User: Fold this.
Amino acid sequence: MRGIYTSTSLMLSALDYQALVTKNMANANTTGYKADRLRLTDFEHMLLDLNGNDTDPLGLGVAAENAPIDLSQGPIKQTERDLDLALTGRAFFLVQTPQGVRLTRDGSFGLDANRQLVTSEGYPVLGQNGPVTLPAGEISITEDGRISVNGNAVAQLSLAVITDEGNVRRVGENLFDAPYSAANPGDAQVHQGYLEGSNVDIAAETSKMMAVFRTYEAAQRVILMQAQTVDSAAADVGRV
Amino acid sequence: MDVISAMQVLRVGASAMAAQERAVDVISNNIANVNTAAFGRSRVEFKEVLQAQTEPSSDTAGVEVGGIRHIWKQGVVRSTGRNLDLAIQGDGFFQVRLPDGRTAYTRDGTFQRSADGALSTADGYLLVPPLTVPEKASDFHFNPDGSLMVRDDAGNWTVAGTLQLAVFNNPEGLEHIGHGVYLASTDSGNATVLAPGQPGSGQLVAGALEDSSVELSQEMVDLIAAQRLYSLGVKVVQTADDMQALANQLAGR
Assistant:
């Protein structure tokens, strides 16, 4: 009977993984999206269990939720729009939301009615002296984040590095909540007229999706088999 | 951890399909307007969505269209030789009067002269401030500063009025009401009216039209990406459905 529970747990874990993979796939075209990482070691563990080695019994829901977010660089795409900013390096833009300062790699910024620099959600983008307001004119932004309008320096974008990469929380709208330091943005470079695409690898996610499905299917077969065994055992006992 | 159900996986796939469908709509509209004078392309901005927006968890529930950004990029100014065609090289907008009296804004300078000589857009919206070419005028043209020059029978040129341009703090925030005509909104801020050639307003080019800023090659690439991601969403939904079916087999035993 224990086998049935192990296999059921495997099915539930596979479902968790599937949810994670599909969330990544759904965001394959989301600017600045950072993929959720599949813990392959855990996944291999699941497969081992499927083969009957239950020396290390599987818990329910293999830590998909706690897997660290993949913060690797996404592809840089040219847009030729002045307020599209892509980052290379490890830094994030800082954004003032009603819930506090959040981090983002989605640099599809714009202006509001008062010419304040805002995200597409309307949250102010932070410079080193707080929110940034730009006068009318030709906007140019250097690789180190200095903004000038018609050649006159206006502001310096605030760029922050996450200080604890294991402690990054998604808050939706392409924003992250994490401990950060804006003191030294390291190797960060701002690219005006570009956006950073999602770092989801569609091909890899698709093959993961298929593998997870097969695992789920196999676990289901095992349950059916085990249930049959129990059935026939019960029938045999009845005959004696 | 929340127990994930196959239904949730299915919803994530459905969110991807819905978002990409919207993207295809926007791209199709861009492509349809590749030859529309002064047309500015739009793009869909995708946002990840969490399962419960009210109590944030680390579970994304897929993707949604966060907004559609209307991008004003200068189109190529192409000479037409027609003296009622006007193009703006810069950030300004023509001001027109809607039938209900409101002032609206457009970049499309394909103007026409109505029976009484008043200048209007192709849809019949009169220019603001009103400009009229008198019936007996033998010739007319616009100067780069916006003044409408009219020649009378005697061959004398006089100024019949001056065209003005509107500029906005955030032109991307203008509200589109169709046919390339826009209204000011709380996002765009109010119009500031300037004469052509003033700093910020842009140069007026008479006898020319601004091309659509749509680049077909870019739209096609975007379209292919959107279609691919749509079919990926279909695949996700199918897989989730297959998983559900497997689970149901257990229950049906």
Summary: Chain A is about 30% helix and 25% strand. Residues 2-70+200-239 of chain A form one domain. Confidence is low (pLDDT under 50) at residues 53-65 of chain A.
